[in-house]
Amino acid sequence: MDSKKLANRGEMDSPLQFSARLRGMRLSRILVIGSMLLFGCEIPGIVSLGTPPPDDEPSETAPTKVAIGVTDGTAAPPTTSASPAPKTPFLTPLPRYSMGYGAQVNWTARDPKQSMGEVQQLGFDWVKIQLRWCDFELERGLADLNKIIALTDAAQARGLRVLFSVTCAPKWTRADNGAGGSGPPDNMQDAANFMSGVASFFCQRGLGAMEVWNEHNLLTEWHGKPISAAAYMDMLKRAYAGIKKNCPSVTVISGAPTPTGYDDGTTAIDDVKFLKELYQNGLKQNSDAIGAHPSGFCNAPDAAPLTKNQCNAFFDHPSFFFRGTLERYRETMVLNGDSGKRIWVTEFGWAVDPTPKKGYEYAKSITLEQQAQWTVKAFQMMKSYGYVGAAFLWNLDFQDMTQETGAFHILGRPVYDRLKTLAK
Predict the structure, then answer these.
(1) What CA–CA distance (Å, rounded) separates 14 from 277?
(2) b vs e for 305-327, b when ≥16 Cβ sit within 10 Å of the residue's Cβ?
């Protein structure tokens, strides 16, 4: 397969009005590359906004911007396998289940109180947002976090923990001024400074986990730099040390690769091959959990890899299978002596669209009833495996069907009611 057949996805350039990823496709047979989507303790280096209010109303006196601590980026901070003990108890709710249940929400377009209530009605205990760094730290060392406060306060008021998935470097971090697409900074310490500062600030505001970047085995998510496991690990090592120093209770998740079914080393690297390279560069010592995006495409969650499906597409590579992706990741972890760690599925889901967008034609062949059955089955399978720490559905409420993201939403569909009664 040549590179012209590769899917081409990027993130929307518009700031906060809509943070979902626009995942277009140029494909003749192949992939939608990636998981279909498919976001009282001491606080060093950052200005505190004070104690959270007793309800989920954001403070009216909160400043709009806070200072992000900046450290020297000439060398990565030392990393340790053991996290320092927190100095005071954290306010993050304790987990209710042996495996976390969550969903990604359309937090920039909807009332966070309403979205958090809808997640709570599912009986879930987690919520995910994609935190586009490029939308927040427009000036070096100064980030506008005000809107996120309303979301985390609303989540905490309902007993939900929050996962931040951080991506997209600001223009000021790159010599090319961000030309051509979103990607990493020139100096990975800039990313670590932002993430550790955010972790500090939200440490007692419901933050439970941070995912360091997203699908960085794909050129459209690592634009402006050669795809490189070693380069990503430079970011992760720095971010891991800073986050754990500032908020030891936060679970730091390695950014999930995307299933590609393709490997040319330039446009994409096979996700399992990339995961192996991450381990060769120190993944075990610099993460609390391993991120994964086991996309099912047109395959049932329990379908064995290479089993032909009803869409006659996306069945000829193991990465196109939900089950196959999880099994191969786990095998890689075991082979690298990391069996004690868990996989965090930070995106998964199935698309339904009677008028599918280009590249997602298979969504026309999946029914709403199949979406419900497959989603429930996937959660049941992950719980039975015992090595999945948490699973986040893509997505709750991106309901605009003119966008490809709308095909994956569950709100107002049979799957939503089915998940309410799912035994957690």
Answers:
(1) 33
(2) beeebebebbbebbbbbbbbbbb
For residue 384, what are its two tokens?
């039975």
- 131 has which bridge partners? 166
Token representation of residue 386: 């015992």
| Nearest one of 277, 234, 241, 221 to 21, comparing CA atoms | 221
Q: Please report which confidence band the pLDDT of residue 219 belongs to, taking 50, 70 and 90 as the band edges.
A: very high
Question: Which 3 state secondary structure label does DSSP give 349?
Answer: coil
Q: Rg (Cα) of the chain, in Å, rounded?
A: 20
**Token representation of residue 400:** 């605009």
158 Cα distance to chain centroid: 21
171 and 220 Cβ atoms separated by less than 8 Å: no
User: Do residues 247 and 206 make contact, with C-beta atoms less than 8 angstroms apart?
Assistant: no
Residues 6+ apart with CB under 8 A from 308: 315
Cα 201 from Cα 64, distance rounded (Å): 13
Rounded Cα distance, 233 and 278, in Å: 7
Instruction: Copy the structure tokens of residue 205.
Output: 């505001």
The per-residue pLDDT for range 8-67, each reduced to its tens digit, is 333 333 322 222 333 333 333 333 333 333 333 333 333 333 333 344 444 444 445 667
Q: State the Cα–Cα distance between residues 385 and 290, nearest whole angstrom.
A: 15
Q: Are 235 and 216 within 8 A, CB to CB?
A: no
Question: Considering the domain 101-420 in this protein, what is its CATH number?
Answer: 3.20.20.80
Strands 161-167, 207-212: pairing kind: parallel
C-alpha 139/C-alpha 129 separation (Å) is: 22
Instruction: Identify the residue with better confidence: 414 or 13.
Output: 414
pTM of the model: 0.83
- For residue 262, which amino acid is it? Y
Amino acid at 54: P
C-beta neighbour count of 153 within 10 angstroms? 22
User: Which pLDDT score is estimated for 29?
Assistant: 34
The pLDDT value recorded for residue 94 is: 61
